[in-house]
Amino acid sequence: MSSVNNNNNPETTDISKDLWKLALSAGRPRENYLEWDEYFMAVACLSSMRSKDPASQVGACIVNQERLIVATGYNGMPVGCNDGELPWGKNSADELYNKYMYVCHAEMNAILNKNSADIRGSTIFVALFPCNECAKLIIQAGISKVIYLSDKHREKKSTIASKCLLDLAGIEYQRFIPKQRQIVVDFDAIEARLPSTDRGPMHDRE
C-alpha cells in the first residue's frame, strides 16, 4: 500500500503558500490574550463567585495534562442541605454553631464533581492554599500539582500540616503570579466584539 506525502505534493504546497499570504493580508493574531495559567486561575476565581459564604469565597479548577478543565468547585454546604438551615458564622463558642462543621471546601467539591474518571497527574488551581483536609483529598486523587493565589493562612497549623503532607507525597505547589492584575468580564463589551450577522456564506445556511 502506497502512501501520499502531502508535503511533496506541489499542488498542496501552492495552496499552503496561498493560505499563508491570505493570513498575512488579513491581519495578525492578537497578542493580549490570556495565558493558560491566567485562564485557569480566572476560572477558579469565577467559580468562587457561586459561593454563598459571607466571609470567604474560594474556588478551584482542575486541569488535566492536555490542558482541559475536568472539574470546578467552590465552598458551600453539601448537596441536598438547605443553605438557610445551617450556620454560616465562625465565632460561636459552640462549634456546632460554626460553619466549619458543615461546609465543603472548593477542592473537595471539585474533586468529587469531576467529569473525568481519572484525574491523576492533573493540576488544581485554587484561590487559597489548601487546608490539611483538602491536601489529603488532593493526594488521594493523584493530583500532581497545586497552583494557588493566596497563602494568607500560612501560619495556621492546618496550612503547615498541608504543606508537610504535600511535600511527603511529592506534590509540587506553586504560587500564581498574575501578569494581568485584573480580568474583567464585560458582557456588553464582549457582545460588541462579536461578528455581525453577515458572517459569510458558511453561516448563511443556519
From TrEMBL:
Its biological purpose: Supplies the nucleotide substrate for thymidylate synthetase.
Pfam families linked to this entry: dCMP_cyt_deam_1 (PF00383)
Essential cofactor(s): Zn(2+)
Top-level taxonomic group: Eukaryota
This enzyme's EC code(s): 3.5.4.12
Keyword Hydrolase belongs to the record: yes
Source species of the chain: Cyprideis torosa
InterPro entries cross-referenced by the UniProt entry: APOBEC/CMP_deaminase_Zn-bd (IPR016192), CMP_dCMP_dom (IPR002125), Cytidine_deaminase-like (IPR016193), dCMP_deaminase-rel (IPR015517), Deoxycytidylate_deaminase_dom (IPR035105)
Keywords: Hydrolase, Metal-binding, Nucleotide biosynthesis, Zinc
A biological process term (GO) from this entry: nucleotide biosynthetic process
GO cellular component, one term: cytoplasm
Catalysed transformations (reactions): dCMP + H2O + H(+) = dUMP + NH4(+)
Any GO molecular function: dCMP deaminase activity
Identification of the protein by name: Probable deoxycytidylate deaminase
Residue ranges constituting the CMP/dCMP-type deaminase domain according to the UniProt record: 35-161
Similarity annotation: Belongs to the cytidine and deoxycytidylate deaminase family.
